[in-house]
Amino acid sequence: MKNMHILPWDDSLCRKGQKTAWLRPYTLDWNNPESDSLHLEYSYNGSDWYQLNGNNGIWFPDFGSKRLHSPSIYQLINGTYLIAASDAVYESSMHLVCTTDFIHYTGAVCTGRDYEFEQLYPITQKPAPNGAVEIPMEILSELQKNYGKPEPVLLHAVEEVHITAKPGEKPSFPERVTVEYTNGMQEERKVRWNLSETDRITKDCQTCEVTGRLEETRFPNPFIYHRADPFIYKHTDGMYYFTASHTDMEHNLDGKYQYLYIILRRASTLGGLADGSGAYEEKVVYERRPIAGGTLSPHIWAPEIHYIDGKWYIYYTTTISEESSWRIRPHCLECKDRDPLTGTWEQKGPVVTEVKGDIAFTDFSLDHTHFEHKGKHYFLWAQKTNNISDIFIAQLSNPWTLCTPAVRLSHPEYAWELHGFPVDEGPGIIKHGGKIFLTFSGSGTDALYCVGLLYADENADLLDAASWKKLPFPVFQSSRATGQFGLGHNSFTKSDDDTEDLIIYHGRQEERYLVDEDYQPLYDAGRNASVGKIFWDEDGMPNFSVPSERIARREEDLTVRAVITIK
């Protein structure tokens, strides 16, 4: 068993044995019916706060204007909590509701503002000056099961290295050491040793210490500018391919200039794909001019490149109309040549189904992906029914033809899927530990856009909706602490050495919302592609941490020490 050096605990996370945490209510004003519901955030130290439910509402009042203002939480003598808030519209009214767990709410009333509830309820704890109340960890744990745990994963322990060398012999250092993270995951990480320190070793030394530094999986953020719905494929020869929805910053917010091209970028390393690396080559492999007399975008969205049975395929969305941008459907390009950058791409047209009368592609359809499992090829996509976007799956008989009925896997039902628009879209697949994980994005494409998760056993019938379980909370969401907003439509890839799973996603570096005046998030070129590390929790579930968070907040935590014994 390896000896591990335990790092100082970051108090933004729950300490071992911690009994209580802080909970704080707040509201957000969208100036619409979903405005000013009860939102909750929690903290372990009273300074670092994490927004539950993807920063979406948790309790929605039914009385008065149905909108809250300045909510406060009071603990009552029997362990119940009372939430009191002004009405956001009617100044003479206030809302009261009770809860024991902040999941279920009872006794909601709307009463006069002069109601003296503090004298009438047996209050044992009033809010702190910052609006927070202290709650037992048991309550917070249940909240997190329902509304998520959007915390960073940080380095917790580093292997202590011990090396024995003979006098006059140069010690041999391990290329990797074991590390452990705060979520319990262990892995081997590369070390850059300060070999110049070995010069201090003399024949008279009995022991000596040499230091090194852990290598981080760290890329520029943003990784690639003005690219939404990013997709990276690592080919069998180790080459990386990148494509995404192309936006034109020079004509920002002007729709007719957006989403006109499919650009394929290639590099020999993942880092080589980054803007400014000078290590990639790229080419426009498909383009379409503005439609409707040059006034509207054809909406070439979400291209993905796949290598299927010895041929290259690009799936993409575009309109099937020359007059409307919104009659969009999944399409397919095929390249039979070895090199997809120099080869010829042939249009296979819209993806179709062999199943007569099936719902597939009968309405607004987009955001497709392909995956193979146990010799079968599957197609996932988003499609609107009654103006609600759902996730569907079917099997393929060839890369552009479905051969089984469309099966709906996910339908917007939670607040974090309903902000702005009822949307589930952008499916992505990653396999790990005997499970197949399906990520998708929910809500309108502003700062509350976030990532949800379904998963199935690898031996299950993937065309049976009952095989898939859906988490009730987002697994990847915006972070004010790191300045990353509106995360979504992700794909997955591997690190250069294939030891790490990575999430490729788009986000914004500004916090804006659908209700902002003159804001058009769809045609805003501010969605940029980024790369994040995936951690695997001890129960086998993926943990996406916090966007743009490093594995260590202190540089000294990346230091590795090797004790060399000369004998």
From TrEMBL:
It holds the Pfam family Glyco_hydro_43. Residues 159-204 form the Bacterial Ig-like domain. The keyword DNA-binding does not apply. Keywords: Glycosidase, Hydrolase, Signal. It comes from the Bacteria. The keyword Hydrolase applies. Belongs to the glycosyl hydrolase 43 family. This is Family 43 glycosylhydrolase.
